[in-house]
Description:
Blueprint: H1 4-11, E1 41-45, H2 50-53, H3 55-68, E2 75-79, H4 85-94, E3 100-104, H5 109-114, E4 117-120, H6 129-136, E5 140-144, E6 161-163, H7 168-180, H8 182-194, H9 199-294
Parallel strand pairs: 1-2, 1-4, 2-3, 4-5, 5-6
Amino acid sequence: SDAYIPIYRSIANLKDSSKMVSIPNFLSFDYVERNYSKTNELLIVARFDEISKRILLALKIWKHFLSTYDVRDWCLTIVGYGEWESVYKDFINKNDIVNVKLVGRDDSKKYFERSSILMFTSLLEGAPLSLLEAMQMKVVPIAFDDCMAIRGFLINDVNSKVIKSLDISEYSRSIYDLITNEKLRCKLSENAFNCRFPISELRNRKEQLRLQRERLLQEITLTEKLDKTRQELRKRQDKLQQQQQNLQALKVRLTEYKKEIEIAEIKYTTIRHTLEQARLSVSENVWNDDYIFSF
């Protein structure tokens, strides 16, 4: 459901949700517009997992309904299975709840075709398939508003009954209103059927998702190429930095060589000057000896 996108964005601390999409469940049954022969039956289709489905809550609502309103010609059918089945049976027996039956694991289509009202008490859902199947079969859903997944396609008194969280009395009252007001029930069932996405819109949605997926894959590919280019540039930058360091070391060494050459030149000049002084001194001594010898 699109209702989860803001929540995920908040949890993930993301500013942009333009690349986030919800993928709806497609209809399980063939798309056939027809009038179904409805009976006095309420329906629950769910996996027997109390944490997410809250079937005990549904049984409490049904018990409250039977004790509050004098209605005995309607029944509640529960289709499903799971580890909580024994808990539900014990609850029904201990509380003497009548007009309710658990049929176990079975093909749900025949139950949707004949049922008039869907009791939906789930708290945690992704994209609830049982709601879509019910609406396709013109079954009026009743749901609590604390289930995020219903937001966006269940509208109170338009295509369903949406009840304030955990308000058992109001939920029971909505069941009674739908049972006793056939005109309202028929209106909501038709609206429930018509509010689903037509096949053409589903195909358009699928095509949009396909194109968006292709764009995302292209962006991912481009990002990978950019990352690879960044890595190559980083390697080149590191190599250039190493070359610059080597060049700087060579400059330092060259400066040292220049200083050594300057020192050598000074030493050479000093030695040359000393030798020149020595030569002059020797020449003078030789001249003096010749002069003395001549006398």
